[in-house]
Amino acid sequence: MNKLGRIKEDCQRVAEAIAAALGVEVEVIDPELIRVAGTGKVRTDVGTRLLRGFVNKHVLTTSQPVFIQEAGFHPICMSCPLTGKCFYKASIVYPIVAEGAVLGTISLIAFSEEQKETLCSRTSSLMEFIGRMADLIAAKALEAEAVAEKIVMAGQVSAVMDAVDEGVIAVDAQGLVTHFNLSAERMFNIPREEILHRPLEEHLSGLPLLKALDNPGGFTSRECFVQARGRRLHLLVTARPILGSEGKPVGVVASFRDFKETEKLAYQFMSAQKIITFDDIIGESRAIKELKARAAKIAASHSTVLITGESGTGKEIFARAIHAASPRKNKPFVAINCGAIPETLLESELFGYEEGAFTGARKGGKPGKFELAHQGTIFLDEIGNMSLYLQAKLLRVLQERQVERVGGNRLIPVDIRIIAATNSNLEEMMQKGHFRDDLYYRLSVIPLYIPPLRERPEDIRLLLEHYRRHYNQLLGKNIKGYTPRAVEACLSYSWPGNVRELVNAVEYAVNLEEGEYIDVDSLPRTVVEGGHRPALPDFAGGQRWVTLEQLEKEAILRALDHFGWTEQGKTKAAQALGISRATIYRKIARYGLAPRLELPGRQKSLS
User: Fold this and answer.
1) Do residues 240 and 369 both lie within one domain?
2) Same domain, 214 and 236
3) Quick one: pLDDT at residue 63?
4) Is the pLDDT of residue 237 over 90?
5) Same domain for 86 and 118?
6) Measuring CA to CA, which residue among 231, 166, 174, 238 is closest to residue 203?
7) Of residues 39 and 578, which shows the higher confidence score?
8) Mean pLDDT confidence for 562-571
9) Is residue 539 part of a domain?
10) SS3 labels along 483-528
11) Mean per-residue pLDDT over the chain, rounded
12) pLDDT above 70 covers what percent of the chain?
């Protein structure tokens, strides 16, 4: 819509006022020769286009006013087919100019001899008068344009504010709320219509926003505790003063983030960006040296890798080292534990979702881990816990290198290297129908097996020393080493939790030890006792006893190995054991249970 079109009601009122005062007719024409306003005989033609408009075209082109004393006989009229018989008697046509641009014309028109006499007898004064009216209309058009731009700008600002995840609040110099975005509504559980144009302190206390008025730079990431309708929120607040036309603060705008979520994101970012190379992998055993050499060779390729090994052997560390030695090292490394996320959420985490895909879906949708790993590496840990449905979707990603978001209908190409890991026996799961054989062969293009710690005891001393130094520095201790008894206990222990258990044991010992050397008294009880009794209790002889906790743990493991570690398998295992589904999930978490690999040399706890 052109500038005059925005103020057509104002133009019509001006035209009618002029016509009533002067006794002549008035019309306003835009650059497309459309009548924006009109009185008398042309009132009914408002909104239509002039058929000829030679005089208006001339004024629009030259930006100069024209007085037509004898309509149809003026030189401008000579090319008009109505020359000599124009239904206009006389007219004054004046350009409407704003900021150097012609917006249209305003005309005084005579349709009778009496009106013609008015124009001819007062031409000079009417020319000046209609010029002022043209300026009035031009000013009104600019004002309307400015208002329209401000409305658009306000809409854009509001849309941007509502699109961000952070809560955003703006107040004026008196503390009245002027803006309150959707994220703030959700964060504080306050509808914006209740808080807008009200004092901020009526609804939220503990926000030092007005203090930013006295600080030219405001403040950044200030920790605040805010009371909101009986709830105490721990937030990080960033505030900036809003400057008026004279450069003085007229208000404050602030953004809010949940403190715990910020900590979590920071931890995830630090974890995700941690660079681990093969030099960081501790071990001098032949098995580890050969494994590191083989992994270094395959790092340069783009082929899919399947890493197997017991829980705690360091599968993710090897995955990160492979990524760091690959051509993708400067691109993202995205890790996701397929066993730690419920199936209903795992799909949207991996593939992302479109806006409105489900209740609670974030506005604008969300990219999945595959998209975030574009041109980099995605590490799928505990792949054996993935449902058959998601296995089929993963197979499609491997085959087509495309993903489709949940609730979407478009395929998004992804350039990724997939490294999968599992402590489950996938071949046995395939036989039971719990894992797709076609996916298995796609994943195991390059298989890597990480041996358990008990199969490489020569690495135990190195690991003990490395993590002693690490936790010395971390905890501010000065422990010099281990006593011979402590070393013997660690070497005699089978370390069923592998390197992860060893790391935890060293941290425990460094925390407890008060002397210069770690002794057996500072080691975890399981390590000390585990090194002096056989792994299998001898029920036949009746000389060995196990705790009820050990029996319960083994019973749950056997049931899950039999029925499977899927959600359905866990339900069946719970029924077979005579416990509720919630109980078995709680026990799994309590004992840190995970699927067992049936590997050579591994013994079961009970036979």
Assistant:
1) no
2) yes
3) 92
4) no
5) yes
6) 231
7) 39
8) 84
9) no
10) CHHHHHHHHHCCCCCHHHHHHHHHHHHHHHCCCCEECHHHCCHHHH
11) 84
12) 90
Verdict on whether the full-model pTM lies above 0.85: no
Domain end marker among 423, 449, 475: 449
Contact 402, 412 (CB under 8 A): yes
The pLDDT of 189-202, averaged and rounded, is 88
Measured CA to CA in angstroms, residue 275 lies from 51, 165, 320, 606 at distances of 75, 29, 7, 41
For residue 481, give its domain range: 453-530
Sign for the CA dihedral angle at 576, 582, 585, 591 comes to: negative
602 compared with 479, residue with greater pLDDT? 479
Say if residue 274's pLDDT is above 70.
Answer: no
Residue 256 sits in the same domain as residue 287:
no
| Domain CATH for 576 | 1.10.10.60
Which DSSP category does 327 fall into? Answer: T
CB 56 within 8 A of CB 33: yes
Dihedral pair phi/psi, residue 584, rounded to 5°: -65, -35
Residue 152 lies in a domain: no
Q: What is the 3-state secondary structure (H, E, C) of 37-49?
A: EECHHHHHHCCCE
Measured CA to CA, the distance from residue 277 to residue 317 in angstroms comes to 8
225 DSSP β-pair partners: 234
3-state secondary structure of 180: strand
Q: CA triplet 400, 402, 408: central angle to 5 degrees?
A: 135
Give the integer Cα–Cα distance in Å for 27 and 37: 5
Residue ending a domain, choose from 530, 559, 574? 530
**How is 111-162 classified by DSSP, letter by letter?**
-SHHHHHHHHHTHHHHHHHHHHHHHHHHHHHHHHHHHHHHHHHHHHHHHHHH
Of the candidates 147, 153, 132, the residue with the CA atom closest to the CA atom of residue 7:
147
The pLDDT assigned to 406 comes to: 85
d(CA 37, CA 7): 10
43-49-51 Cα angle (round to 5): 105
Radius of gyration of the chain (CA): 40
Give the position of tokens 């060779």: 297
For the chain, the domain total comes to 5
| Lowest-confidence segment of 49-58, 143-152, 524-533 by average pLDDT | 524-533
Judgement on whether residues 65 and 197 belong to the same structural domain of the protein: no
126 CB-near residues (< 8 Å, 6+ apart): 22, 92, 108, 118, 119
Residue 144 sits at φ, ψ, to 5 deg, of: -65, -40
Going by C-alpha positions, the residue among 21, 24, 104, 26 that lies closest to residue 63 is 104
Ranges assigned E (strand) in 142-203? 167-172, 177-180
The DSSP code for 88 is -
- State whether 106 and 177 are in the same domain: no
Amino acid identity at 269: F
Indicate the pLDDT class of residue 392, thresholds 50, 70 and 90: very high
Inter-residue contact 491 to 510 (CB < 8 Å): no
pLDDT band at 544 (very low <50, low <70, confident <90, very high): very low
290 and 419 co-located in one domain: yes
Pairing between β-strand 66-68 and β-strand 204-205 as defined by DSSP bridges: unpaired
Measured CA to CA, the distance from residue 529 to residue 523 in angstroms comes to 10
